[in-house]
Amino acid sequence: MTNILFAAEKSDLYLGDTIYYLVLFAILLLAVKHFAWGPVTDMMEKRRQQVIEDIDKAADERKKAEILAGEREEQLKSSRQEATQILSTAKTNAEAAGKDILNQANEEAKNIREKAKADAIQAKSDALNEAQAQVADISVQIAEKVIAKNLSAADQKDLVDQFIKGLNK
């Protein structure tokens, strides 16, 4: 103890003052703990809880965003496949429609050719019949002059028909 007293004499520090300062320091620590440390730790705990909740919410939101992004990506792939299928169907339909139009045009051209051929045959037949009628009339006139007699109309017609049949052979 003499060392403590010796040190106290040297620095003018006494044991009573030291105890007094220690008691005051202890009281100050208790006051700080009661009035400052408790509210500060409570505030820090609330803040820690808030940060944890915010991090959990952010993680949940990130997971939701990832799920939505995956769904959107899947929808985009589906849309692309659907668009490709629509284009393929449209192309197939266009080709089929083109073939149908071409077939119809060919059929119509064939019908027109057949009708033209039939019309030509009919025109030829009509021309031959008209020519036969004219030849018959001319033949009758020539025969009248040659024979110099009048034949009845029925006789003349029979003669002309026989003559035409002979020409066709």
From TrEMBL:
Annotated TM spans: 19-40
Cellular component, GO annotation: endomembrane system; plasma membrane; proton-transporting ATP synthase complex
UniProt-listed CDD domains: ATP-synt_Fo_b
Record membrane topology: Single-pass membrane protein
Keyword tags: ATP synthesis, Cell membrane, CF(0), Coiled coil, Hydrogen ion transport, Ion transport, Membrane, Transmembrane, Transmembrane helix, Transport
Compartments, record wording: Cell membrane; Endomembrane system
Keyword tRNA-binding annotated: no
GO molecular function, one term: proton-transporting ATPase activity, rotational mechanism
The organism's place on the tree of life at top rank: Bacteria
Stretches assigned to coiled coil: 99-126
Database matches in HAMAP family: ATP_synth_b_bprime
Family recorded in the similarity comment: Belongs to the ATPase B chain family.
PANTHER family: ATP SYNTHASE SUBUNIT B, ATP SYNTHASE SUBUNIT B', CHLOROPLASTIC
Description of how the protein assembles with itself and partners: F-type ATPases have 2 components, F(1) - the catalytic core - and F(0) - the membrane proton channel. F(1) has five subunits: alpha(3), beta(3), gamma(1), delta(1), epsilon(1). F(0) has three main subunits: a(1), b(2) and c(10-14). The alpha and beta chains form an alternating ring which encloses part of the gamma chain. F(1) is attached to F(0) by a central stalk formed by the gamma and epsilon chains, while a peripheral stalk is formed by the delta and b chains.
Role according to the record: Component of the F(0) channel, it forms part of the peripheral stalk, linking F(1) to F(0).
Descriptive protein name: ATP synthase subunit b
Taxonomic source organism: Lactobacillus jensenii
Lineage start: Bacteria, Bacillati, Bacillota, Bacilli, Lactobacillales
